[in-house]
Structure formats: C-alpha cells, structure tokens
Amino acid sequence: MSSDALSNLLQENRVFPPAAEFAAQANAQPAMYAQASADRLAFWAEQARALDWSQPFDEVLDWSQAPFARWFVGGRLNVAYNCVDRHVAAGHGDQVAIRFEGEPGDRRDITYAQLQDEVCQAANALLELGVGAGDRVAIYMPMIPEAIVAMLACARIGAPHSVVFGGFSAHALASRIDDAQATLVITADGQHRRGSAMPLKPAVDEALQTLAADGTSPVAHVLVVRRTGGSVEWTDGRDVWWHEIVERQSTAHQAEGFDSEHPLFILYTSGTTGKPKGILHTSGGYLTQASFTHRNVFDLKPDSDVYWCTADIGWVTGHSYIVYGPLSNRVTQVVYEGTPDTPTHDRWWDIVERHRVTILYTAPTAIRTFMKWGDHLPAGKDLSSLRLLGSVGEPINPEAWMWYREVIGGDRCPIVDTWWQTETGAIMISPLPGVTGTKPGSAMTALPGIGAAVVDDEGRPVANGGGGYLVLTEPWPSMLRGIWGDPQRYVDTYWSRWPQYYFAGDGAKLDDDGAIWLLGRVDDVMNVSGHRISTTEVESALVSHPKVAEAAVVGATDETTGQGIVAFVILRSGALADGEDGAPVIKELREHVAKEIGPIAKPRQVMIVAELPKTRSGKIMRRLLRDVAENRELGDATTLADPTVMNLIASGLATGTSED
Ligand code: WTA
User: Fold this and answer.
1) Pocket probe mutation, ligand 1, options 397, 521, 527, max atoms within 8 Å of Cβ
2) Whose CA is nearest to atom 12 of ligand 1?
3) What pTM value is reported for the model?
4) Which domains does the chain have, with CATH numbers?
5) pLDDT in tens, 491-547
6) Could you count the other beta carbons within 10 Å of the beta carbon of residue 226?
7) How much distance in Å is there from the Cα of 473 to the middle of ligand 1?
C-alpha cells in the first residue's frame, strides 16, 4: 500500500458504536473479554464443552512441544456427529440445513435428518472403497451439496480430506494428490459456471495420468458425482459413480469418537516458495474455535437466521464458515453454485431476497465489483432481511466498507471485518457484533482468548499509532498443527523470525485507540481477489514455458481485485523475431500460467523486458518492479548492480504490455 493511501486510511475517524437493539439480543457479551483474559485456557475449555465429546478431555493445552500444540488432550469426539447427528438427536431433524441453489436455477432443500442419512451413506461408500481412518481423500468439486456431504463423510470415518479448489488446473491437482498421497479422489462430471456446463473430471483424469506416468499414482478410485450430465471418459475398475455406490448404502453408520488431535483436513495454500504448503488441521481445537467464532462473530440464531457465506469450499473460508462452524451451530444456510453475474448481475441480491438471507459473509473484491456494477442492482431487490454483514480475505477499504454498510446493509447492519488465515483455521481478529464499535476498514481487535500484537523489526510491540508486523502471541485452539510432511518448514515459516511469536506475514498498524488496521502481506505472497498466490509459484510456471528465460512477478494494487498479478519476462533469444509483435507470446504465456496453476493465477499483465533489476547479490528488486507496475515514479535504485536497467525496462514497456 502506498504511504498516501495509508495515511488516508488512518485519518479514518468514523466510529459506529454497537446499536442498543442489536446488543440486547447479541450472542456475544462484553464480559467475554475479561473472562478470557482472566483465564484464557478456562475460557477455551468452556467453549470446547459446548461440543459433544464421546470422551471428555483432561488437559486443555499441551504446549510442551512448542510450536507443536495439542488442545483438549485425551478428549475424543466425532466432528461429523457434532455437525449433524446431535441436532437430529435434539429434535431438529426437520430443520433445513442447506438451501441449495444451482446456477441454472435448480433448488434443493436438505434437512438435518436427510443430511445425516446422506453423510452416513457416503461414509459407508468410502469404507466400501477401502478408505479407512487416517487415509487421505482429495475432493475436487463444484459448490454442490455433495461436496459438503463428502467432507462430512470423510470427517465421520476419520479420513482427512484435502479439498482442491475446482478452479485449479490438473497440474496443481496432481501435485496436491501426490503430496498428500490421497488414495481416493471425489469429483463431479462438471459444474455450471457463467451459464455453461464446464467439465471437471477431465482434469482429474489428466492429473492421474501424469502421476501414473511417473509410476507414483496413489489413487485407487475416483468417485464421480453426476452434476451436469455431460459425457465423461471412464476408467473401469477405478471410476465409480456416486449415485451408484452411495445411494445403495445403508443410512446407518455408527460415528466413532476420534482423538482430539486426529487430523481433520489438509488444505494447501501458497507460501513464499513455489511449493504450496499442506496446512494441517486437527479435530477438537479446530471445531471448538470454528464453532465459537461462528456463533459469536456472526451472532447466529439457529431458529431464525438464514446464513449465506459466498466462499467456495476450496478455500479455508468454505471449510470453517460453510461446513464446520455453521453446521456445528445448527445453521440454515444458502449454498449457491454459480457466479454473481448469471443470468443477470443481480443474482446475489435475488438470492438474498428470495431466501430472506439474514447474515451475509463475503469478500471485499466482490463488494468492489458490485459497487462498479451500480447501486441500482441491489436497490431493485428487497434486502431488508439482512441483519449482519461480514467481510474476509483482504483488507477492506473504507469506501467499500461504507458502501457495504449503506447500500447492502441499509445502514442498520453491523459489519464484521474478520482477519484470519488458512493457518489460523478460524477468525482471530474481528469486532464482536453488539459489543465492539467498528471503524470502516479496521478489523478492530483480537477476539476473546486470542493474543495478537503489532511488533517492530526487533519483535517489540509498537505503541498506539505505530506500524509493523502482525504476530499472534499465544497458541490458539484452531491453529495449524504443522505442514503436511514437513515439520521443519512449519517452524521455519512461522516461528523463526521471533521464536516466541507466530508470524502471520501481514503488515499492520495500531491507530491511536489501539484498533488494528491490516495492511496486506509483507512477504512475496499476493492477494488476488482474496486468494493467496505466491510470486514464486507464478514465476516457476512462467519459466517452465520454453520461450521464457527469466521471470519476476509482483502484485500491483488493483482497484477491484485488491492486487493484480504483473509479470516481467525475459524471453529466450529467438523466441521473438526482430520487430515481431509481442502480443501473441504474451497471450500464450498468460494461458500457460492458467494451465499450470489455474485461471486465478493468470497474470493481469505480462511485460516483456530485456533485463530485470537485481542487486549485486542477484536478488530481484521487486519494489522497483512494483513501482513500474503501479505507474509510480521509481524509488531508490542505487543498490542495483546495473542502475541503467530501470531505464531499459521503463522504455521497453510501451510495446510489451497486454491487458484484458
Ligand atoms: C489476508 C483467508 C485484511 C491476510 C481467510 C491473510 C485479510 C491472508 C483479512 C490469508 C482481513 C484475510 N483484512 N487482510 N479481514 N482476511 N486477509 O489463508 O493477508 O486465504 O494473511 O485465508 O488474507 O488468506 P487465506
């Protein structure tokens, strides 16, 4: 963020105190903060006891092997039982759990009793396919109810799932299957997006072919949900239709309690190197914090709310705030398959109106997109059912925050700007609605039971008004338990800069009142539309193209997506004939990245350059490239090995830029 934008941000002095009417009915209570700071572990133990344990825990936290935590030691529970069966047992079997709406307009309501039957059947099918506790299952699916059923079925039998976003490429899927050594892949024939049926299974076929060619495919079966009905290639003996195997299973399945630290899922996220990290989450602590935060940050009232989180289950937000948090709290929620512009640009507001959505949780990128599309779209629908709005994934600028409040929330809904990460598993910094006053653009303060600080280079907490790095000062229940297969990388990445703190990788500032303002990543991770993509990942994809000699990638500020990916590329000699137009190569390179990683990683811009700015030790000076990408005057270039390089780059730009 430029220093201008930053100082504007920090001059933001509007405060919205909690409305008395909201406070009077709020789940969250002001006393929670004092209670948690008086005895943090007792506070979390109390939250854990809101779950159903088949065996109670005898120790709240074992931190003796720090930074490897064990929470609720000795306890046993079944996560799926907590999300489904216990609500049926309590007499809520007829309550609708999922109100599914497909992009073509098909609808399906699933009650808790039906969900229980489907999860049990799917669990029995997984067992029949040879999947047992501890085996990894890759899930590569669209936003359809079966995706949620698949996750819960895995949880039910103790098989950790690894959900791979359906927008990732075959290549990305293959590396994730390989890293986790998944023995089963659950997918669908295709998905409905932007008005057409897009195939999904071919990417699985391609991924498994690549793995088999290396002689290393761990996958025994592919379980395929029929969604679009298109024709699919079939590998006999390996591929199994969901409707053929799941629907004939018994709806009876005895849920077994697993150890509190039993692995629940792996979710891959970008780090600062090219290889994505398999973030590992376990059962008791994760569910405790996902459930507690969902109940209190979103003020969920299970008997009256209709909740809608617009995330995809391929991201952590979908795990914690579509599946585990909401279902553990007996939510009634909308699940929508498609894009916001199909068939018209007011599809979301149509959904809010028809389903009488009360709680909406989405990302700043979406909000900024709707701002651009115009106020008349939400104004054309009845949004009066909304009573609380949430934001996640990236810093929300005050302008978008105010628009969200006024145009979507009719000036009456509290906004919760929630900061957290794949690694934290659940929300860490956020206002509590009805308790905490809010400022447009600030995530405000750490939740009760969470320790957060902003520190300087030496790890010393900064005073109010100061800026630095965001750290977490105490272990928390839903913290990652490590990186799959690489414990050392876990220690190095998060616990080595200041060994006593978890280093989140975000810059932050405290305002004069001590409220926390997140300023974006301080490492080489970009945040594009709320999705984390590492610069190195995109660089490796680019240099894997035969025409590319060298590549440097930066995230440049983007009005809509937060950051946009800008790539500087040196081509191999002969890749471009003298005087040849660069546009076709640029197009080819953008497509290549989409194929290697997925369309979300496609660079917004590719610039063909003759040189890259490097220090004498050969390190690329991204700061200067960001200046170029953001059309700023160049910063200090005196540490460059060759100071003339920047002139070369700047002068070559006019011909080498492509945008669409
Ligand atoms: C960013 C998404 C500012 C941050 C849940 C973090 C945010 C990264 C916010 C994690 C927020 C997330 N304000 N920045 N409210 N929420 N971020 O793992 O940079 O996909 O480190 O988890 O998103 O992204 P991830």
Assistant:
1) 527
2) 393
3) 0.91
4) 72-339 (3.40.50.12780), 529-656 (3.30.300.30)
5) 999 999 999 999 999 999 999 999 999 988 888 888 998 888 888 889 989 989 999
6) 15
7) 18
